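I hope you will forgive my troubling you with a question about protein structure. You will find the record immediately after this paragraph.
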Amino acid sequence: MELGIENRTALVCGGSSGLGRAIAEALAAEGVHVTIVARNEERLEAAATEMQASAGTPVSWKAVDLTQAEARANLIEDCRATDILINNSGGPPVGNYLEFTRDDWLVAIDANMLSAIELINASLPGMIERCFGRIINVTSHMVKAPVAMLSLSNGARAGLTGYVAGVARDVARHNVTINNLLPGQFDTERLKSNHEKFSAARNISIEEFRTKAQRDIPAKRFGQPKEFGAYAAFLCSAHVGYVTGQNLMLDGGQYPGLV
């Protein structure tokens, strides 16, 4: 299927690795002019070079620490000309919710809620003027199925979800959509890091924990980043202007609820 987004522009946060990179790769393969954003210049340059060689489409990169407000200001001009915005950032630390301080919470909220809102607000005027915009926030299935050790992530991402719910419905008439993708257990470095912490807390081996984790997923496996990237690219397409304000689960059927 032709997605109808060739020559559109996209800004993909966290685009040098993991799910962010998978989205960037999928968009570049569709002929989208992608700029990937992350902190590490070396990883960014390598990722952009590899994606460009594979897709045959120019892929740019910009080193920005999205946790810093002054650094985010460097992206505002990019946002104004962006047709597709992917908000994606690594989650805050895993730990005991009783031990998190006010500063821990402020850092988590800034990185996983306020930074995304800032980029959304910078992108919307241009998207509305051009009558096309696709915004995806990569959050977490923990928004719908929270666990205590991820309380910082649960809270910050739920706040972003609430903000999007109203704004998405306000801009839908302009062919601008805003949706949240809620990944379950995809086989990334972030997942492995979390599993190491979870297994240590339960005093079992990482191998034992990962085996049980896969057994608890109806699909009986972890997701592959390319699957996530393909789904995200379709959600950015010209064909999906009637889907907005949604929290879309990609978790191999693990979430047991109806809504």
Summary: DSSP finds nine helices and seven strands in the chain. The mean pLDDT is 93. The chain has two domains: 9-186+224-250, 187-222.
